[in-house]
What does this fold into?
Amino acid sequence: MSPNLKDSTRHPLKHPDQRVGVFIDVQNLYYSAKNLFGMKVNFGNIVKESVLNRKLIRSIAYVVRTESKEEQPFFEALYNLGIETREKELQEFFGGAKKADWDVGLAVDAIRTAEVVDTIVIASGDGDFIPLVEYLKNQGRRVEVIAFGRSSSGKLKEAVDEFIDLGEEPGKYIIKK
It folds into this structure.
């Protein structure tokens, strides 16, 4: 049984000398918040909760850029919160299908960063990250996921060392329009 994690100032497995890397699947959290609550995500609070009283080494958000560049103010807001961004162009295919998948990019950055951190936090409920979680744990890293529980993979929740459900305190992690 895991302890009550409501007290964000003290957790026996999260100590001040622990180095943390946070990797944010923006699309996954954006659509989860939109579909579950009809609202936007407070990425600053997600990073804050992910780190707690530990040492943040890097936080990276994986974002999609469109031709209109209407998302530029959002990218600047992330930057001002101390969150790096990795940007990828939205791909549009014949027939109108659109795709912008960052799973491999996030996984590669997490593996590279694992050499200098103790804990990897993946901000996504995407079950495609299960092989990454297993690899990182086999490398001796603590792996945590922070995401909306109702839209997260059950197998991902089971695979990680800790799952933080943003849906338990939605007011803390979403921004009212």
About this structure: The first strand starts at residue 19 and ends at 25. Residues 1-8 have pLDDT under 50 and may be disordered.
